[in-house]
Amino acid sequence: MKQVLITGASSGIGEALVHQYLKQGWQVVACGRNDARLQQLSAVSPAVQPLRFDITDPAQIAAAALQVTQLDVLILNAGDCRYIDDVMQFDGELFASVIQTNLISAGYLLQHLLPKLKRGGQLVVVSSSATLLPFTRAQAYGASKAGLDYLAASLRLDLQQYDIGVTLVHPGFIKTPLTDKNDFAMPFLQSAEQAAQRIYRGVQQGRMYLHFPKRLTLLLKVLALLPDRVWYWLAGRMDQA
User: Fold this and answer.
1) Which residues, other chains included, contact 1 with Cβ-Cβ below 8 Å and sequence gap of 6+?
2) Could you tell me the end-to-end alpha-carbon distance of the chain, in angstroms, rounded to an integer?
3) How large a percentage of the chain has pLDDT more than 90?
4) What is the pLDDT of residue 69?
5) Domain ranges of the chain
6) Does the pLDDT at position 171 exceed 90?
7) How far apart are CA 195 and CA 92, in angstroms?
8) Burial grade of 170 (CB within 10 A; 0-12, 13-18, 19 or more)
9) 3-class DSSP state for residue 25?
10) Across all residues in the chain, what is the average pLDDT?
């Protein structure tokens, strides 16, 4: 059986990915902090290996990695999304926390899990379509995800010699416990199951870049081609609405 490790597997896209890979006959290492949710997943199938650890704790990552054998696919999916509501009262602790969870933790995960990835395997980095344009209040979230974009692109260059592919994923708005907290309109909202299906299919095809739903991501890409002042004017209008 092929084996995939998924971080953030206890909810949202990560949980949907667990079920998607199980349906295709894979062995799944399901990682997260919520032990009860992980045990529920392991009760679904003996092919699920629950692995509880906090991605912000390097010692826990190192200990958990000792329980992992060789991997065919490694999916870095876990993350946090919080906003800076008052830019003039910039929350440095919130900024540092989001950067730690979304970006710094990726370095420790790679340190301990990348050596487990087989030749011919695939590393999957789940970022965000928020990196395509700057958005209001998203200083912490956007900066962390932009860092993941560069990390994935640079890794792709250096992992070629090991025959390991890298897939960067830019989801749009996906219905998860994180997005349920959003207090703004989320156009073209998709389910976690839809996102998981797209990711699984793209990874199987060895795609370097996945973005969805394209009705949203292509619109953002077009807007990004316009002069900066156009987007800042539009974003300002949306913020006032």
Assistant:
1) 25, 26, 27, 47
2) 52
3) 89
4) 93
5) 3-240
6) yes
7) 32
8) buried
9) coil
10) 94
Q: What does the radius of gyration of the chain's CA atoms come to, in whole angstroms?
A: 18
Of the candidates 141, 222, 98, the residue with the CA atom closest to the CA atom of residue 211: 222
CA 110 to chain centre: 14
Strands 71-76, 48-52: parallel, antiparallel or unpaired by DSSP? Answer: unpaired
> pLDDT (tens digit, 9 = 90+) per residue, 65-104?
999 999 999 999 999 999 999 999 999 999 999 999 999 9
Residues 6+ positions from 82 with CB-CB distance below 8 Å? 94, 97, 98, 140, 141
- Per-residue pLDDT averaged across 160-174, rounded? 96
* Among candidate residues 105, 195, 88, 94, the one with its CA nearest the CA of residue 148: 105
> Which residue type, as a one-letter code, is found at position 190?
Q
Q: Give the type of residue at 204.
A: Q
Are 77 and 125 contacting, i.e. CB atoms less than 8 angstroms apart? no
Question: Which is the CATH superfamily of the domain at 3-240?
Answer: NAD(P)-binding Rossmann-like Domain (3.40.50.720)
Each residue of 35-74: pLDDT tens digit?
999 999 999 999 999 999 999 999 999 999 999 999 999 9
Distances (CA, A) of 18 to 50, 79, 101, 130: 11, 16, 21, 24
Compute CA 124 distance to the chain's CA centroid, rounded to the nearest angstrom: 8
